[in-house]
Amino acid sequence: MTYKIHNAVVVGAGTMGAALAAHLANAGVPVTLLDIVPKDAPASDKQARNKIVNEGWDRCIKARPANLMSSDLATFVKLGNLEDDFEAVAKADWIIEAIIERLDIKQQLMTRIDAVRKPEAIVSTNTSGIPIKDIAEGRSKGFKQHFLGTHFFNPPRYLKLLEVIPTKDTLPAVTEFISWFGSYRLGKGIVLCKDTPNFIGNRVGFGTGAFGMYYILENGYSVDEVDALTGPLMGHPKTATFRLIDLVGIDVWEHVGKNLAPAIPHDTYALKFLNAEKPNNLIHTMVERNWLGNKTKVGFYKEVRTEEGKKEFWSLNLNTLEHAAPTKPRFDSSGKAKDIENLGERLKVFLGASDRGAQLIQALTYQGFQYSSMLIPEVADKPKPIDDAVRWGFMHEAGPFEIWDMLGVAETVKKMKAAGYAPAAWVEDMLKSGCASFYQYKGDNKVGIYDVNKRKYIKIARAPGLVVLSELKKAKKVISENTGASLYDMGDGVACVEFHTKMNALDDDIFNIAIEALDRVEKDFVGLVVGNEADNFSAGANIFMVVVAAQQGMWDVLEGAVAKLQNMNMRMRYSARPVVVAPAGLTLGGGCEVTMHASRIVAAAETYIGLVELGVGVIPAGGGTKEYMRRIINPLMRVPSAEVLPGLMKVFEQIGQAKVATSAEEARQFAILGPADRVVLSRDHLLAEAKKEVLHMAATGYKPPAPELIYAAGRDALAALRVGAWAFKEGKYITEYEGVIAGKLANVMTGGDLSRPTWVSEQYILDLEREAFLSLCGEQKTQERMWAMLNTGKPLRN
Fold first, then answer.
1. Is the pLDDT of residue 103 over 90?
2. pTM above the 0.85 mark?
3. Concatenated DSSP letters of 669-695
4. DSSP single-letter state for residue 6
5. pLDDT for res 1
6. For residue 587, which of 540, 530, 544 has the smallest C-alpha distance?
7. Which of 115, 226, 500, 777 would bridge with 550, disulfide CB 3.0–4.6 Å?
């Protein structure tokens, strides 16, 4: 049977259920969100009967970070209740249960679903701990064949992990389809799990987390000390340990720990710490006091306003249970390690040191390795699912076995034993068999993984059709390269330009490769992809080069660089072959301008894109101002009797406030993406989808657009914008110098001192952009802004 998901139902409008409905909407799936009817709600009052679901959805759309990628996507979601709107379940292709964690209530719901579901409809539970097989107990054969666990991590938009848990009755085709849909359509990293307590992510997380809490309390570490050590230094997010528990919710932490302990009576490595008196008393006391973390604004941290009105987060003294002003702990080991970029080398510093900070990291690292190894083969037969679950579910830089490989397995085993954290027996068996690492490597790529049951490496399976640039390089598909960029042959007549400077900042090396690519594509290829596999597509121009050139008076060099960027972008826009740009992550300033000149954009859903040049004291000069005028003002002014000012104000605000779209879909609202541009939720598939788009455009007879004139509103509109900027300055919304920058921007946006509105060439606006940019670069306050950004990473408002 071929499965499809054209519409879905989520039952349960709590934090997770509503966020799941939002993420299905992000993927373009129409979804109905259902919840119970409040007691005593009148049968005739639909609003009252939908009170619970309405409030759940309202909390979801107000939550930050946002669950929806764009407010426009809310129309994919319908709201209803389980009495009046249950027919939605009968029509759904996928029904997801996300209700209270009580087996009896889940089973009652499944009985109702079983009675009405379509024969091919897939039903799944988002339970985080109840055995999947128990939830399906007593259901029909067809239901059981189409039932499985789909455990998303919260918030589902941002956390990549999706644990898929089939039962012995689940059809393999159902497991395969949901895994494909979760990966390709929802952008998730799929980990197939056995139906064991808390599956993989939470089992590892709480088994190691309970130990961590025990060790911290027994050894007298402070909240500030722990969070200074257990964040990025260990390859973990900035939330570290206690900020993470505050984020999750201290009541949730207690609930999961209480439920997990009785479910794993055999797990002696976790039970000692899950049942430890001191940590449990601490957590329970905090719950009793309603210190639940972020949701009540007090937990291990408390939000405090100082006398000057400044917001501070005071940390909890774990002995007195009083909050105190934050401290900045210092350890010799962290001082030596903090500037080491490689995670393995950074951890080696801690594992070889002896101060208190190093001792904590040693204990957490060695126990994490020990516990992860002990879970095999109970929760997985190979290390990779555990690594994937930890990376994707907790946003760690690497999983425990990946880190273990970095440190050297045999050498680390000796240190673990000496410290009292002996690994599972299979690890030493693996070493004795001649397998020196958990992964089998070909160069830097992982090609195999050790299977504990088979006692040998097995090949790592990969989704078909993915494009991996490092593999193209090894296959000698590099056509040209320099220190800033590379040009690849992707196959099938498609070329690819990859940036690889720091933060992919645009520089002359990138321009040269891109121009060479455009030359070659016109002769030898059907089209071009501009994209990379880095976290960020491009953070913009190399402002170090800009400010140094300005301060040394190298105006010809600077003007030449800006003109080169403008010309490169215009060549892309009018290329005879399709040029598809594939942005992801930070796509700022010049990176945004490159993107806006593509024939087509295929963007990763989590693309944070905008023209931010005002933050460093200049205006967009790579065609960005021109493109906003073309996309926002031009369509408006083609309407008879239209007023230009609303369009001008939108452009003025978006550039003047350095607005950054928080998703690719929101970038569509900004007019950075157009109606034909695509958004891909799976970052792993982005380059492959961009390549497909090039081939599709070429196959359907792509032709470049006709040259377009730009509406320049002239001096009356310029005067209006100047008055607006003056009012903002007088109201203290912008600084005196920001008023100067705004004046330069207004001049470009209106075409300068034109006596009347005129349709001008793109080059006319580009020349004004370049002139304004160079003029501002000569200003001391702009140079101060550039140096502040380079030194602090934060904008200076001078």
1. yes
2. yes
3. HTTSS-TT-EEES-GGGHHHHHHHHHH
4. S
5. 62
6. 540
7. 777
